[in-house]
Amino acid sequence: MATLRTAADDFLAQRRIAVAGVSRTSEGAHSGNGIYRRLRDRGYEVFAVNPNADRVEGDPCYRSLASIPDGVDAVVVATTPEAAEDVVRDCAELGIRRVWLHRSLGKGSVSETAAEYGRQHGIPVIVGGCPLMFSPAADPAHRIMRAVLTLTGAVPRNVQDAEQ
User: Fold this and answer.
1) HSE-CB of 25 using CA atoms within 13 angstroms
2) Is residue 162 a contact partner of residue 122, using CB atoms and an 8 Å limit?
3) Distance of CA 51 to the CA centre of its chain
4) pTM exceeds 0.85, yes or no
5) CA 13, CA 120: separation in Å to the nearest integer?
6) Is 150 helix (H, G, I), strand (E, B) or coil?
7) Residue 4 exposure: Cα atoms within 13 Å on the Cβ side
8) Where are the domains of the chain?
9) What angle do CA 77, 80, 84 make, to 5 degrees?
10) What's the per-residue H, E or C state across 5-37?
11) Strands (DSSP E) along 9-164, which ranges?
């Protein structure tokens, strides 16, 4: 079992990251869009995924993970928990081995069914929290949120290994 810090560092070491569940509009505080913008602004090659959008945040948007040219190394899931299950299935089919089910307050994208499916298919899914909480350039709000959510158990301290 890896620590969350180790898994987060490995996730953030990837350069091609998809964010599944971005909103068509950038208005409001949709977490997927915020993650997408921050990763893009920090130099990642980031891909927006929304089956109902052609553009997000002024950039091309892909309707599925499979439609991203040359694939990705990691996926942040910022969908409903029900949609997260489909995204994790797609990751398994495409050989994507780094998946983060986003959650800050509330349920977020966390689905135990999705996480278990991922583990059964070789993916040690990060369940809860946000990659921005673990970035070396994390803003004060994300650092505080990481501490609070870790203390309350909303962010796990460890990531279950994938089944081999």
Assistant:
1) 3
2) yes
3) 17
4) yes
5) 24
6) helix
7) 21
8) 2-154
9) 50
10) HHHHHHHHCCCEEEEECCCCCCCCCCHHHHHHH
11) 16-20, 45-49, 55-56, 59-62, 74-77, 99-101, 126-127, 158-159
**Domain 2-154, CATH:** 3.40.50.720
**Residue in 72, 86, 74, 21 with CA at minimum distance from that of residue 49:** 21
Q: State the Cα–Cα distance between residues 59 and 150, nearest whole angstrom.
A: 33
pLDDT tens digit at each of 164 positions of the chain: 788 889 999 999 999 999 999 998 766 557 899 999 999 999 999 999 999 999 998 899 999 999 999 999 999 999 999 999 999 999 999 999 999 999 877 778 899 999 999 999 999 999 988 899 888 878 888 888 888 888 887 777 788 887 75
- For tokens 């499916």, name the residue: 117
Report residue 54 as tokens: 């052609």
